[in-house]
Amino acid sequence: MTSTTTTPALETRALEKRFGGIVASNQVSIAIARGARHALIGPNGAGKTTLVNMLTGVLKPSGGQILLDGRDITILDPHERVRLGIARTFQINQLFADLTPVETLGLAISERLGTGTHFWRVPGTRPEVVDEIAALLERFRLTDVMHERTAVLPYGKQRLLEIALAFACRPRVLLLDEPAAGVPDAERHEILAAVAGLPTDVTVLLIEHDMDIVFTFADRISVLVNGQLFVEGTPDEVARDPRVKAVYLGESLDA
Amino acid sequence: MRGPDVSTSAALASAISAQFSARARWSPLEMVFWLGAFSTIWLLPEQHLILTEIVIWALLALSLDLILGYAGIISLGHAAFFGVGAYTAGLLAKHALVGEPVLALLVSGLAGGAFGFATSFLVLRGTDLTRLMVTLGVALLVREIANRAAWLTGGADGLQGIDMQPVLGLFRFDLYGHTAYIYSLTVLFVLFLLARRVVGSPFGLSLLAIKGNPLRASAVGIGQTWRLVGIYTLAAAYAGIAGGLLTQTTAFTSLESLSFDRSADALLVLIIGGTGHLYGGLIGAVVFRFAQDWISTATPQYWQFWIGLFLVLIVLVGRDRIGGWFAPLRRLADRISGWRPWRPGPAAAPDEGGRP
């Protein structure tokens, strides 16, 4: 695994997280190939969000390693990982309620360009920032609400802003934590179109409950059960696996 | 959703720029506020002593707003920086180290800022409660040190024998406080302009992000440590300058400048006026000082009772701020001037009286 061509975009090695006596992640080793559309599925309490929180630095692992493009990022702070190219969305919206989408996106872009600490400049005076905000607003269909406070946006638009904000960090690896969670059916297609339209050079790890989304979107699936990696394979392999069917008793896995 | 025509990308880009620049633009209400403030130089000459006090409270509350309103750091020990500035200005003048008041005031600010920088690392993490206790503790410590170091500070008697030189070598401090008021008001205005610029910058925006949602702020790459250290240091420098002003305009300083009462009153002033819009501390100081004056004249024994009741009402009923009570007025002004034309309709209401 030393050759650069085969180095996974993101890799965990025997990653563990214990909360007291509870093992939330148990020796999880996953390799996500560059440019992959990798889905992480599993029943409630399987440890999916714990894993994402460790990948992004919100939680400190109890053991194991995390590598981004072969570089060990296990002990880095969340904001340092973002600078190295790993960004995420949240299952429950984590947005800036009092800022508009324009301000929110401008914030992330300025941060990426290293101008976020400028204290003597009026924001939005740099054409490259403005142009990039414009491109993001259009890509994620946020132009019609660009002047509204985030707190008053329709829920579907907030979900789009979640993705747009993570994407504004220009990640090489993007973690999407249930991007369509709670979105009414009428607004759902906008989210799915945004996810499907992500550039192919961005590696995507999708954490999802909805099997329709998983099987339309993913080219590789890892199944977590009780904090452990249970099965991994192509969508076909996973769908046919009787053990997976047993875990998801009652849920249809036939895409 | 009404909004400007953003059908072309050029229009979209200009709409984005317009949104940012509207934030930085001066509203008519702001101009009226400052014109009103400066007009008191001529209109209320017999009130200059109390107005100077108000300006100093306003500057201290503005300083507190920088950390509480923009970075979410609550403090019950802001008097520590105020007092450091006050004693610095006093010692500089008393021992004729720096005679010229403006220069001495800058040194007071530097002293407050340096002390703020040194203690900022204590308030970086932790809950509101930890921060309250840490800031309170630091202020108590400093006060006790000043009390013990009587050879330097004069201890409980205060620092006496301060002889102030003319401002810029030109304007003598007079008995009626005219020079003191013009000097203090000018300092407040200059520092206000600076603060307005800083909170409106990308740095200021990132502070609001940290305050609004620290989890997400770090998830978009915003490192918190140095930004919080930066704003805490700046706020401490402001408080130091406020303390320096008090010493310079009264030619005296005492342990009162370091007291718990001063920290608590500063917070009270800010809460009366409202946090997070820079004018809160200024409006709060006017209301606080005049209310104190009026109520204590009417019922000398019970003045604190009324101010306490007022505080409870503000926090429970108002929940927002006095600035918010002017929201209809501000909306009217917006409509007349066409200020922020891109944020029309009811959706704008919750933000009225918000950031300038």
TrEMBL record, chain A:
Keywords for this protein: ATP-binding, Nucleotide-binding, Transport
SMART domains recorded: AAA
Gene Ontology CC terms: plasma membrane
The UniProt record lists the keyword Kinase: no
Domain annotation ABC transporter: ranges: 10-251
An annotated Gene Ontology molecular function: ATP binding
Protein name as catalogued: Branched-chain amino acid ABC transporter ATP-binding protein
Organism annotation: Rhodoplanes roseus
TrEMBL record, chain B:
Transmembrane segments: 48-67, 79-97, 103-124, 180-199, 225-246, 267-291, 303-322
GO molecular function, one term: branched-chain amino acid transmembrane transporter activity
Compartments it resides in: Cell membrane
Any one Pfam family match given in the protein's UniProt record, by short name: BPD_transp_2
Keywords of the record: Cell membrane, Membrane, Transmembrane, Transmembrane helix
A cellular component annotation (GO) from this entry: plasma membrane
Identification of the protein by name: Branched-chain amino acid ABC transporter permease
Species of provenance: Rhodoplanes roseus
